[in-house]
Design brief:
Layout: H1 33-43, H2 45-63, E1 98-103, E2 106-111, H3 139-175, H4 177-191, H5 195-205, H6 210-220, H7 223-236, H8 240-247, H9 252-288, H10 300-308, H11 316-343
Length: 350
């Protein structure tokens, strides 16, 4: 037998199935939780659009009432029922101050800013971007003033949810037993009273206004948040890390706010965001039926209520407050939906 040594060339052998070999796992640097949540939130286009719209509405609520020389309560009777007129757009044939009116003889088109016979009207250089109401008040200024009230209601809803409803639910769920039974019976009694009844009773004691609406939201607006917080605590309080904290001698308040709360804070934020449209709609409904802020102060609900009477003759009066209210409610819902997916990415798979 020949003992000659053989040397193999690199291409003498072919590895079968090389294309099916799995890729080697790659390691990526760890990322903080909030950065991960922000990355998932920004991938949701609807949530980003909703957030941008909310920021634009807040900006207009801040600067909008100061963009004209009119105030929300200034009345000019000679300027009543003027259609929207925007500088620069009148030459394009839109928002030039003309409006169609349905009469018994048919539909007529009129423009109160200019006269048909050429005589001066005194309104040639006057512009009302959203038009005026039956008392000659600027709807643009009143709409953004009303938006301030809606945003105030949204802030109140968040504060009530996070400062009272959250704590109420955490305490009720953590301690359980008689404490939980008493606290839940109290919330059930309050939840059984309709909001309209509570507001009506408050009006008998206080004058109609923001104080009445704020108290109405503070009395019953936190119940939904407390139930969510209680349910989350009941799910977590028997977990191993809670038992370990108790074994090491941690106090109850430390466990509630340092161990449990950080693990359920995402769900509570989501619930709080979803409660904002409900609070805004409640205020608009109360204003629509006459239980909102008193005149001449305007809210979106009171603007819609006042404009509803002139809807058939001057529909522009109701269009702009309805659009702003719809944008606010839709934007908060879109942002809350994005927060839900960001804090719990498994929700998208369902």
């Amino acid at each position: 037998m020949n003992n000659t040594e053989f040397e193999f060339a690199p291409d003498d052998f072919l590895l079968v199935g090389a294309e099916k070999i799995s890729r080697v796992d790659e390691t990526f640097p760890s990322k903080p939780m909030w950065k991960d949540i922000l990355a998932r939130f920004t991938k949701n286009k609807g949530a980003v659009v909703g957030t941008i719209l909310i920021l634009l509405v807040i900006l207009m609520a801040v600067i909008g009432p100061n963009m004209t020389e009119h105030t929300y309560d200034s009345q000019i009777i000679s300027h009543q029922n003027l259609a929207p007129r925007i500088p620069g757009m009148e030459k394009a044939g839109i928002f030039d101050g003309s409006e169609q009116m349905s009469t018994s003889t048919g539909i007529i088109v009129q423009n109160k800013y200019v006269s048909k016979d050429g005589t001066p009207t005194g309104l040639e250089d006057i512009y009302y971007w959203f038009g005026t109401d039956v008392l000659g008040r600027d709807i643009f200024t009143r709409t953004w003033t009303g938006t301030r009230i809606s945003l105030y209601i949204a802030l109140v809803a968040v504060i009530v949810d996070m400062c009272f409803g959250m704590i109420y639910g955490l305490v009720s769920g953590y301690f359980g037993g008689k404490v939980d039974m008493v606290l839940q019976r109290i919330s059930e009694v309050l939840n059984g009273i309709p909001t309209l009844v509570i507001v009506t009773l408050l009006i008998l004691v206080f004058k109609p206004g923001l104080v009445t609406i704020t108290l109405a939201l503070a009395i019953t607006g936190w119940i939904g948040m407390s139930r969510i917080a209680r349910a989350q605590v009941l799910k977590l309080k028997e977990q191993e890390f809670i038992l370990a904290s108790k074994t090491l001698g941690a106090k109850d308040l430390f466990i509630i706010f340092k161990e449990i709360l950080p693990n359920i804070f995402g769900q509570l934020i989501i619930m709080s965001m979803f409660s904002i449209p409900n609070a805004i709609f409640t205020e608009a409904f109360l204003a629509f039926i006459g239980l909102g802020v008193p005149q001449p102060l305007a809210s979106l609900g009171s603007l819609i209520s006042d404009s509803f009477k002139s809807f058939t003759t001057h529909p522009y009066m109701i269009i702009f407050p309805v659009i702003v209210l719809a944008i606010i409610m839709l934007s908060f819902n879109m942002m809350a939906d994005g927060l839900r997916d960001a804090f719990d990415p498994k929700m998208k798979e369902m």
